[in-house]
Give the backbone structure.
Amino acid sequence: MSETTNDFLHETTRRLEKLAAFADEGGLEPAVDLLAAALESGGIIQAFGTGHSQAFAMEIAGRAGGLIPTNNIALRDVAMFGSQDVSILSDPKLERDPSTVEELWEITSPSPEDVFVIASNSGVNGSIVGMALAAKDHGNPVIAVTSLAHTSRVTPKHPSGKRLSEVADVVIDNLAPYGDTTLTTGDDIGIGAVSSLTAAFIAQLLTIGVAERLAAAGTVPPIYLSANIPGGDDHNHELEARYGDRIRRHA
């Protein structure tokens, strides 16, 4: 194993260990409280992320070992299910456009019982902050997963002048450094981005926490089985049917 590989392993594992300790100390309980309460009241978990933070939403919604009453909101929904032409998705600045949120909200059609989990390393792009504000305006609680080290050093791009961390009810720091990278090479070029790894770990810790909370209350947690094991599809489809089109699953 090269020195660089070891260095990146250290940078990653020390953050995961810090997050694990944070969870053991009860640091994630406010988020688990909101998530479990939403499911117990018949709501679902609305997960949203743009750019590489889409990976966080995918880790929350629609995967083996994950909770079934979850929905992955994506910017592409405005073209797949809304009025926008697919060409809009070629715009790399789409995630910065707050005007997208109005139609995205209508397409998602959240229930009052739903809770939002929104991930963004920078926490300042227009669509991210706009979705958080829309959720708050409609009375839905918001959990943010963001880099506090990064978001504090960049200017918000939403007209409100707010950051995701300033809108959310609960903020979880993904512990990524400013700029996301943990190592340097050459002329101080940053490499070894870590936010996707820590965010995925956070997503799993939240899922585990909610499943344990529901089980402790005497409820069988609605968990996905792998579709690639016998009976997986039947199990999953039966539970998905309880939520109808409130949870959207597509390629």
Notes: The chain has one domain: 3-243.
